[in-house]
């Protein structure tokens, strides 16, 4: 399935930017409107009422009974008739499954091959390692574990099911509970990492094939429940000894980095893009995020990445302190995606940004 075959019947003067109604969809359609595109969202019935409130942003609302309907001929034909370019975000694979996401017969803005890497924690960490970006020490269940580690589950689960442990026995017991509850099928793609102490920092990047440029467009901190609530309790209450910390993301907080860190942040982005061209051809296109801990010695340790738009960019609908420096106008990540599509169309280079 080539991009050329997907778009050869399209009316390129009437393109529609489409996505799932979730995650960062409102930002995506808002940015698309700013750049003059038509928009479409696919939504479930129980979310339809909410998204109807944004009729100024959404030209077409495609309502389905379940996410499984997305890869049906009916939905694909509807999107094709709208000359749609689909923008994937973190909910796509989690909701529809990797098989559907990879085989969807609508051109994506971004790299399809990133889905399979993002679904496998070991492949993700391997890509960061290949890029030469510092990562936490990794353990297996055969290793002696005598210090705090974080155990992470595969896929874009928003931190759901992640847990901290200090021994093999503790890890095995908690993984057994997760299997019994159906959250995981097996332990193969679970990753065990050193728990690095420092400040979480999530960097938002955009790689432009049209400009051949990597841009730092923002940074954020995730607000996680209940780990962030527990740390506000005075130690004398002792309640933290009885409540299991969890890392479910409930929101994001804006972050402005000290300027002396920015050259290293850019270097990490450049390394990541270079490595992605080897591991997931044609390489990263458009938005991605490297998720890190900044230690008190200012060493930046990357523990995760997202190969598409992240929800933390929703903070910057009117642009971030960094996007203003690049563009001197309001430039959200959603609008930056639409701007890249527009430039590619004008340069007859859509095949550079679509897969």
Automatic annotation (TrEMBL):
<feature type="binding site">
    <location>
        <position position="91"/>
    </location>
    <ligand>
        <name>5-amino-1-(5-phospho-beta-D-ribosyl)imidazole-4-carboxamide</name>
    </ligand>
</feature>
<keyword id="KW-0464">Manganese</keyword>
<keyword id="KW-0479">Metal-binding</keyword>
<feature type="domain" description="ATP-grasp">
    <location>
        <begin position="125"/>
        <end position="342"/>
    </location>
</feature>
<comment type="pathway">
    <text>Purine metabolism; IMP biosynthesis via de novo pathway; 5-formamido-1-(5-phospho-D-ribosyl)imidazole-4-carboxamide from 5-amino-1-(5-phospho-D-ribosyl)imidazole-4-carboxamide (formate route): step 1/1.</text>
</comment>
<comment type="similarity">
    <text>Belongs to the phosphohexose mutase family.</text>
</comment>
<keyword id="KW-0436">Ligase</keyword>
<protein>
    <recommendedName>
        <fullName>5-formaminoimidazole-4-carboxamide-1-(beta)-D-ribofuranosyl 5'-monophosphate synthetase</fullName>
        <ecNumber>6.3.4.23</ecNumber>
    </recommendedName>
</protein>
<dbReference type="InterPro" id="IPR010672">
    <property type="entry name" value="IMP_biosynth_PurP_N"/>
</dbReference>
<dbReference type="Pfam" id="PF06849">
    <property type="entry name" value="DUF1246"/>
</dbReference>
<dbReference type="GO" id="GO:0005524">
    <property type="term" value="F:ATP binding"/>
</dbReference>
<dbReference type="Pfam" id="PF06973">
    <property type="entry name" value="DUF1297"/>
</dbReference>
<dbReference type="GO" id="GO:0006189">
    <property type="term" value="P:'de novo' IMP biosynthetic process"/>
</dbReference>
<feature type="binding site">
    <location>
        <position position="23"/>
    </location>
    <ligand>
        <name>5-amino-1-(5-phospho-beta-D-ribosyl)imidazole-4-carboxamide</name>
    </ligand>
</feature>
<dbReference type="InterPro" id="IPR011761">
    <property type="entry name" value="ATP-grasp"/>
</dbReference>
<dbReference type="InterPro" id="IPR016185">
    <property type="entry name" value="PreATP-grasp_dom_sf"/>
</dbReference>
<keyword id="KW-0547">Nucleotide-binding</keyword>
<keyword id="KW-0460">Magnesium</keyword>
<feature type="binding site">
    <location>
        <position position="224"/>
    </location>
    <ligand>
        <name>ATP</name>
    </ligand>
</feature>
<dbReference type="GO" id="GO:0000287">
    <property type="term" value="F:magnesium ion binding"/>
</dbReference>
<comment type="function">
    <text>Catalyzes the ATP- and formate-dependent formylation of 5-aminoimidazole-4-carboxamide-1-beta-d-ribofuranosyl 5'-monophosphate (AICAR) to 5-formaminoimidazole-4-carboxamide-1-beta-d-ribofuranosyl 5'-monophosphate (FAICAR) in the absence of folates.</text>
</comment>
<keyword id="KW-0658">Purine biosynthesis</keyword>
<dbReference type="InterPro" id="IPR013815">
    <property type="entry name" value="ATP_grasp_subdomain_1"/>
</dbReference>
<dbReference type="InterPro" id="IPR009720">
    <property type="entry name" value="IMP_biosynth_PurP_C"/>
</dbReference>
<keyword id="KW-0067">ATP-binding</keyword>
<feature type="binding site">
    <location>
        <position position="252"/>
    </location>
    <ligand>
        <name>5-amino-1-(5-phospho-beta-D-ribosyl)imidazole-4-carboxamide</name>
    </ligand>
</feature>
<dbReference type="GO" id="GO:0016879">
    <property type="term" value="F:ligase activity, forming carbon-nitrogen bonds"/>
</dbReference>
<dbReference type="InterPro" id="IPR023656">
    <property type="entry name" value="IMP_biosynth_PurP"/>
</dbReference>
